[in-house]
Structures are given as C-alpha cells and as structure tokens.
C-alpha cells in the first residue's frame, strides 16, 4: 500500500498487490466490442474505494462499471489498451481546435449525478442513434451503471445558449486523476463534434483543478467507436505493464 506516484506511473495491469488482488475473480464472456476472441474479465464487486486506492487501480489499467472494478485479461487478444493523457502535455490539433471553436457558445457545469427526465430523454435518443435495435435504455445506464458507484462520481452538463442540453459527461474524480466513464449527447447536434469537445473540456477541467491524469478507458484499434481516442496527442498507452508515451510525428504540426 506504500507505492510512490512514480512507481504507480510505471506499473500496469497485473501489478496490483496481493492484498487487493485477492478480491478479484475471472469471468469469461463474449467480447463486448464484437471482436471474435473470447473475453476474460478480471473483476471484483466492491464497496466504497478510497481515493488513493482508486488511483492505483486507474494506474494499473482497471475500469469501473457500476460497483464492479475490472480489467481485461483475454487469453487470445490484447486489443483493449488503456489510454490516458497528461493535461499539461496535451496539444490540440487543428481539427480539435476547430471543434473547440464550434462549441464556444456552450456552457459547462459540474453537478451531482442525477437522473432527470431531461437527461434520460437525451440519453435515450443517443442510445437509439448509436446502438439501434439493441434495446439499451437510459434507465439501465443510470440506475444500473452510473449511480452504482464506488468512488466520487459527478456529471458535467453541456448546455446550448437557449438552455437545451447538448450532452452529459459522467466522470469519476480524485485529487490527482479524472476517469471519463461515459459521454452521451443529443444526436441532432453531431455537427458540433461533441465527443471531441467533451474530451477537450475535460482536459481543460483537469488543468484548472491541477489534476495530473485524464483516463479515457480503452483504445481499441479495431473498433471504430474506440479508435478516435488516439487522436489526442501526446498520450500514454499501457503496453506490457508500462505506461508508454505516444507523441505526434515530428512532421505533424499541431499549432
């Protein structure tokens, strides 16, 4: 339990100490991202997790789903690669700056997690547009996922000038880390690139509050919906249990 921040930065999946790992068990399942290999969740159902311990889990590549903390240990696949960003090192690309500019009229506000009728309606529209035919519902996401938390969880509301809800970011927050849990938005506002704007705002939020790492979950090269995260540079990938920096090519201008 006495690891330094530097040691946390170096260690990755499988490096959680036995006093914590003893609570975890393996669950085989079909791949949640539609890849052909069988998935293996290394997971535990937990109660309240202290900030410093949650920071260790984040640094080790774990993710949260409700009160379930897990990492992927799939025997035949290593496509799920944890990704994080140092907000002070990040430099936006030209297209990202344009997305930021398109949303210059958006008001952002951090609020307690709350399933209002307005949010449920926007989330349902998003799920129908993003996952047609799957029967996903906002009630399931809020009451079975977002609100069953083991750490400090908040929402960041994004509102248009007329007060309409553009989108909502659900985030876990610690003193030195921010975990992007989920983001949904009004699909009629897709032209604004709200997903890109959300990550840019979370990075700005981290800088404002001196938060050292933004965790974006998994980067999966073979899955379109997860590939975009690698466009935020520089970033770090958890490869072979080490956080490895990935920087823009020298010939690429991000000014």
What does this structure look like?
- Helices cover 27% and strands 29% of the residues.
- It has 255 residues and is an alpha+beta fold.
- Strands 6-7-8-9-10-5-11-12 form an 8-stranded mixed β-sheet, with helices on both faces. The protein has a 4-stranded antiparallel β-sheet with strand order 1-2-4-3, with no helix packed on it.
- The radius of gyration is 18 Å and the shape is globular.
- The termini are far apart.
- Residues 1-14 have low confidence and may be disordered.
Key descriptive features of the protein:
alpha+beta, globular, 29% strand, 255 residues, 4-stranded antiparallel β-sheet, 12 strands, Aminopeptidase, 8-stranded mixed β-sheet, disordered N terminus
Quick structural gist:
With 255 residues, the chain is of the alpha+beta class. It contains eight helices and twelve strands.
Structural class: alpha+beta
By CATH, the topology of the domain at 84-217 is Aminopeptidase
Question: Would you report the number of β strands?
Answer: 12
Work out the helix count: 8
As residue ranges, the low-confidence spans are 1-14
What profile does the largest beta sheet have?
Answer: 8 strands, mixed
Judging from the principal axes of the Cα atoms, what is the shape? globular
Output the CATH homologous superfamily of the domain at 84-217: Gcn5-related N-acetyltransferase (GNAT)
Task: Tell me the Rg in angstroms.
Answer: 18 Å
N- to C-terminal distance: 42 Å
> What is the CATH top level name of the domain at 84-217?
Alpha Beta
Order of helices and strands: HHEEHEEEHEHHEEEHEHEE
């Amino acid at each position: 339990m006495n690891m330094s921040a530097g040691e946390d930065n170096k260690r990755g999946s499988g490096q959680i100490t036995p006093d914590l790992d003893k609570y975890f068990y393996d669950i085989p399942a079909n791949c949640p991202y539609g890849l052909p290999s069988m998935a293996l969740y290394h997971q535990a159902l937990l109660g309240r997790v202290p900030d410093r311990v949650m920071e260790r889990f984040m640094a080790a590549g774990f993710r949260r789903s409700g009160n379930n903390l897990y990492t992927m240990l799939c025997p035949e696949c290593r496509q799920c690669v944890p990704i994080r960003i140092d907000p002070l090192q990040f430099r936006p690309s030209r297209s990202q700056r344009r997305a930021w500019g398109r949303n210059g009229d958006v008001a952002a506000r951090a609020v307690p997690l709350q399933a209002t009728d307005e949010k449920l309606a926007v989330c349902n529209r998003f799920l129908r547009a993003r996952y047609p035919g799957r029967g996903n519902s906002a009630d399931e996401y809020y009451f079975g996922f977002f609100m069953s938390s083991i750490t400090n969880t908040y929402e960041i509301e994004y509102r248009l000038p007329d007060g309409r809800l553009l989108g909502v970011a659900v985030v876990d927050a610690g003193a030195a880390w921010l975990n992007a849990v989920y983001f949904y938005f009004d699909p009629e506002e897709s032209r604004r690139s709200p997903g890109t704007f959300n990550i840019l705002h979370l990075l700005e939020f981290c800088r404002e509050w001196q938060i050292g790492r933004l965790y974006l979950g998994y980067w999966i090269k073979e899955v379109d919906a997860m590939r975009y995260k690698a466009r935020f540079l520089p970033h770090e990938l958890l490869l072979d249990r080490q956080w490895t920096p990935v920087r823009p090519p020298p010939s690429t201008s991000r000014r």
